[in-house]
Amino acid sequence: MIDLEVRTYRSDELLPREEQLAWRIAEIAADPVAVDDDVTEMIINRVIDNASVAVASLGRAPVVAARGQAQVHPYSPGSTVFGVAGRYSPEWAAYANGVAVRELDYHDTFLAAEYSHPGDNIPPILAVAQHAGRDGAALVRGIATGYEVQVDLVKAISLHKHKIDHVAHLGPSAAAGIGTLLGLDPTVIYQAIGQALHTTTATRQSRKGEISTWKASAPAFAGKMAVEAVDRAIRGQTSPSPIWEGEDGVIAWLLDGPEGRYTVPLPGPGESKRAILDSYTKEHSAEYQAQALIDLGRRLGTEHPELRDPAAVESILIATSHHTHYVIGSGANDPQKYDPTASRETLDHSIPYIFTVALQDGAWHHVDSYAPERAQRPDTVELWRKVTTVEDPEWTRRYHSIDIAEKAFGGRVEITLADGSRIVEEIAVADAHPLGARPFGRDDYVQKFRTLAYGVLSAAEVDRFLDLAVRLPELTPGELGELNPIADRVPEAPKGLF
């Protein structure tokens, strides 16, 4: 890897294009290096993973609305939309599929200086691959780039510190991945990256307070913007530059300002793109920082059933990382995180709620655990309001560690019972994490798809999709155009402007 030093430059300072971050990313995207076999296998896993969570969300309102927007934009050759037949304009297909993938907050994650769901790269890259008639091997190369660029940016540049939403790293990564897919010249990819970043910076209010349906739409919108940015760049249109380093650029006014310095790790020429292997998927439908604590809650409730009774518990304190405490914990100071009438989007960002339900039920379900009747159960509400979080510097340090062996996303749970006794347990990583008790493998990804597709897809359709997915690098353009699970039925979309 090559460490690229990135900072703001005054307008009277010369920063050659070849030294700009956007150009270096464009060179990586244009590098024809082969994709390693283990990376290819993980890309297949994540294509299956994305389809799993998308299929499970086909009936949810944000997905129905997004699908409706795509369906009024039919196009030939076009791209497919999850759950339905037909071909649609690629940017709208990317958007609809992006919403479906993100809606349940149930696909892969990478956490470092910033947060990310790098599987969000797949919908826009796949949409363009289908529209442009590319084969499975080209799609694999494009996805490898998308993951590489987003993960590398996430390792180096914090957005949330400045209340900028994490999808600002996704626009450039998806544009780069599309550039690889299409075999574009670096000069074109460079312009697309700049346009994609410029149009996808927004505040984090979408993930604060009463979280709205836009939470799932924000990354999908970034993917849509990436598709449009590539289209404009191919047509010869240019973008603001230097987009990151300029005097009025992203770093100067949205991030750390003129004094900000970043070291971005990037593959060197001819170096494999392996960043997807640093990411991890979810066994449970909830914010990633909740994964390990769900596993611990399930275990504690099973081993100590008395903890399920709020009368037996004085308090539950979760000592955890800065992010977990301030984003999904009591440190967010969001009263909605303790509100039994809060939206699903809010509850899946409330570790006090999530831990309570996992503790009481000894299980976690992507629908049942969020149902209003479950959230409003009196004994749950009573116990839930006894759960608080606190930042522990050691868990924060481990969260940010670049050493995969010590990087952790869990915490320590201290339960004080009504009789004065205490139970203290901790967990570093989720059971499904590569270093966890039960790391996810191909069979787990396939089973996740079969489980979430049950009752939505026919058995024959499940088998048809999986047969294509596991052969991804070998698929012809025609076969890749069929890489779309079609449901027996989907809800009709509400009418909108179009």
TrEMBL record:
The family database entries (InterPro entries) matched by this protein are listed as: MmgE/PrpD_sf, MmgE/PrpD_sf_1, MmgE/PrpD_sf_2, MmgE_PrpD, MmgE_PrpD_C, MmgE_PrpD_N
One Pfam family named in its UniProt record: MmgE_PrpD_N
Gene Ontology MF, one: 2-methylcitrate dehydratase activity
Spell out the Gene3D superfamilies in the cross-references.
Answer: 2-methylcitrate dehydratase PrpD (3.30.1330.120)
Can you give the residue ranges of the MmgE/PrpD N-terminal domain?
Answer: 19-259
Swiss-Prot/TrEMBL keywords: Lyase
Q: Which domain of life is it from?
A: Bacteria
Substrates-to-products reaction catalysed: (2S,3S)-2-methylcitrate = 2-methyl-cis-aconitate + H2O
What is the enzyme's main class? lyase
Please list the residue ranges annotated as the MmgE/PrpD C-terminal domain: 284-468
How is this protein organized at the quaternary level?
Monomer.
Member of which family?
Belongs to the PrpD family.
User: What name appears for this protein in its UniProt entry?
Assistant: 2-methylcitrate dehydratase
